[in-house]
Amino acid sequence: MNTYTMNDLCKIVTDYVANGSFASLNQNIKYVTKESGFARLIRLVDFNNKFNDKDAIYTDENGYNFLQKSRLFGGEIIISNVGINLGTCFLCPHLNIPMSLAPNSIMIKTNQNDKYIYYFFCSSTGQSKLKSLTSGSAIPKFNKTDFKKLEIAIHDSNEQQHIVNILGSIDDKIENNEKILKSLDKKLSMIYEKDLSKKLKTNNSYKLIRLSDVANFQSGYSYKGKDLTETSKVALMTIKNFDRNVGFKIDGFKNLNPQNDSKQSQIVELYDTIVAHTDLTQNAEIIGNAEMLLNKSKYEKIIASMDLVIVKPKNINKFLLYLYLHNKDFKDHALGYTSGTTVLHLNKKALQEYKICFPVDNEKLIKLENQIELLILKQSSIIEINLKLNKLKQLYLKKFFG
């Protein structure tokens, strides 16, 4: 392995402010909606949202023409260089639309295998290198000049491709599994719409019952900052586990060492349903969302935070119960019980007063329960596979880059 500076290795190192002064950027760049936009500005939040259109920002054609020095075409390495997420690294996707880099990141193209360099910066060694560049200010950051001086040791071109092939194949499997998870969730939604939705309330084959007749509700643990710790076998589940685009984020757990005893009923068991009762997002994207715990990750015990309510079945199948809440009917109902401005809160009556369409035919009910359970258990199995694939990826990153 030979050592080079990033200046030696990069054909392009650029960022948003490379296009001009702050005054000229403010004058020429307008943020517009997708409908009136010409080009999408790529940010770290887009990567975290898996490049979903929700919350995407665009600029007009004049803005895109002004941002000539930070245009993106797909495949470029993007590295966050400001804030708590400094060092987060991703490859720009191929979206088949005009794109440019948004503020607070740098973009690089190298004279090496770009995917190899990307994997290097994903490794613990690469992350340490990036964090070593940060200044001593309250907000961590580094600039292009310091980045160009960074020295890294790299493999020869043949070894680079070998490493990319191994890590790329793992990423491909993870991505394919995530597509399967989405497909399974769509199948669950189709079952709900066809056989359980509110539109069936006038159907004689169904009876309308209160959710409180078939389920119990338990508020989560009221924790303090001192309850959080670096390592623990106990995890705190919070609204950070709720994806803004719907879904459960298994990397959202916080390590917990509770100073006060939590109730047994505040422990989230596998296949429990949890509903978000607090929201910090602008558009109520999380509040009223229901998710199921499908994997405990590395933890022995999961405790729900005060921002959540655990919904436990009394005399209803737990998988069926989940599907009654994991849908637009309940979300729309919950929004009617929401209050607050900066922080949104969901009234506990939202669950207590919600009504569901319950099949009268027991044979049909059992068939539905079996279908739903099978799909959810498949989801759980795939999540476990992806956790193992991610662990394997980390082992390879350590092997190749230290």
In short:
The chain is built from twelve helices and 23 strands. It is of the alpha+beta class and 402 residues long. α5 packs across α6 and α8 runs antiparallel to α12.
What is the radius of gyration computed over CA atoms, rounded to a whole number of angstroms? 24 Å
Percent of residues in helices comes to 25-40%
Unreliable spans are: none
Determine the number of helices (DSSP H or I, runs of at least 4 residues): 12
Task: Lay out the secondary structure.
Elements: E1 2-5, H1 6-9, E2 10-15, H2 22-28, E3 31-32, E4 39-42, H3 44-48, E5 57-59, H4 61-66, E6 71-72, E7 77-80, E8 89-91, E9 99-101, E10 105-110, H5 114-122, H6 124-131, H7 144-149, E11 151-154, H8 157-195, E12 206-210, E13 215-219, E14 234-237, E15 254-255, E16 273-276, E17 278-279, E18 290-292, E19 301-304, E20 308-313, H9 318-325, H10 328-335, E21 338-339, E22 344-346, H11 349-352, E23 355-359, H12 362-401
Protein described:
About 35% of the residues lie in helices and about 20% in strands. It has about 400 residues and is of the alpha+beta class. The protein is globular. Helix 5 packs across helix 6 and helix 8 (about 155-195) runs antiparallel to helix 12 (about 360-400). It has a five-stranded mixed sheet with strand order 3-5-4-9-6. The two termini are about 15 Å apart. It folds into two domains: about 1-155, DNA methylase specificity domains (Adenine-n6-DNA-methyltransferase TaqI, Chain A, domain 2, Alpha-Beta Complex), CATH 3.90.220.20; about 200-355, Alpha-Beta Complex (Adenine-n6-DNA-methyltransferase TaqI, Chain A, domain 2). It contains twelve helices and 23 strands.
